[in-house]
Amino acid sequence: MFLSNGVKQKKEWWKTAFNKDYLTADSYFVSKARTKREISFLLKLTGKIGLTKSAEILDLACGYGTHAIALAKHEFNVTGIDTSEYFLKIARETSKKQKQKVQFSKKDMRTLSFKKRFNLIINMYTSFGYFAEESDNLLVLRKISRALKPKGFLLIDLNNLSQVFFQFYQNGASTGKNNIVSMFQNETLKNGKRLVIKKEIDPLTMHWTITYSWKERRKQKNLQLRIRLFSLPEFRRMLEESGLKIKRVWGYYDGSPYRFDSRRLIILARKAWVIKKTNA
How many angstroms separate the CA atoms of 251 and 265, rounded? Predict the structure, then answer.
């Protein structure tokens, strides 16, 4: 099966993972306080980079629309794109209920067709690095660069690779077959459900696999995510190859500087005039 632009579709985890079960597993990590902090950071950022009312913002991998709707409340023109119809339905219902105008649509980020439209593109909560092919990650960055207006901005929120490795070390991770490093966590959700989290890293590919397991109405539930981790120097190179230059880096949404043990890797990049040429 092919997409309309001739890109061959592959059966990948992200095509079916973002549903009701994902919300159950993710509820351990996402809280109202965290979301409030993220939105506050975004709103302060729009002021710092000089965005005015009616500026065009794209929430790339918008999920159920939390950040997009919050930005729309401050009179920005917001577009939200995601591949999960389940999440998009929630986003549309929420925006309608809150009387906010956001253009939500289902789209694979590799097929972005916008040209010089957005003042700011945001990619929140580790929504990058999902593809099996390395070239697809670079393709997305190039599509982002093309979609930005001259001197437009990209804000991207990634897992901090060094902190992930540090967490493995702290929790006594073990090395198994094919040098895969793994660890387990046992957590309890707010609704009392016991959540078992298995985390694995392939040091050869830097792919981080997270498997959530829990029981619901006596049925075993499992959800698996597979994310490519990036170091800051590696991601800087990818951005530059896509015509984007890093302007600022943070370690969390409280504005703290990026360090080895920071919880996040949050990057603000700006569109350059030309895309850096490579020998590839």
Answer: 5
The predicted structure's pLDDT at residue 188? 85
* CATH class held by domain 19-160+231-271: alpha beta
Predicted confidence at residue 276, as pLDDT, reads 53
What is the per-residue DSSP string for 26-64?
HTTT--HHHHHHHHHHHHHHHHHTT--TT-EEEEET-TT
Delimiting residues of CATH 3.40.50.150 domain(s) in the chain: 19-160+231-271
Identify whether the C-beta of residue 72 lies closer than 8 Å to the C-beta of residue 56: no
pLDDT score of 5: 37
Long-range Cβ contacts of 273-279 (<8 Å, 24+ apart): 273/150, 273/243, 274/243, 275/142, 275/145, 275/241, 275/242, 275/243, 276/240, 276/241, 276/242, 276/243, 278/241
pLDDT for 23: 87
Number of CB atoms found within 10 A of residue 200's CB: 18
Residues of the chain with pLDDT under 70: 1-10, 28, 273-280
Model pTM score: 0.91
3-state SS, residue 76 = coil
- Alpha-carbon distance of 91 to 103, in angstroms, equals 10
| Residues 51/120, Cβ–Cβ less than 8 Å | yes
* Single-letter residue type at 153: F
Q: What angle do CA 261, 39, 238 make, to 5 degrees?
A: 55
| DSSP output for 185-227 | EEEE-TTS-EEEEEEEEETTTTEEEEEEEEEETTEEEEEEEEE
- Kindly state the helix (H) or strand (E) to which residue 103 belongs, with its residue range: strand 102-106
CA distances from 12 to 99, 128, 202, 237 (A): 35, 14, 18, 26
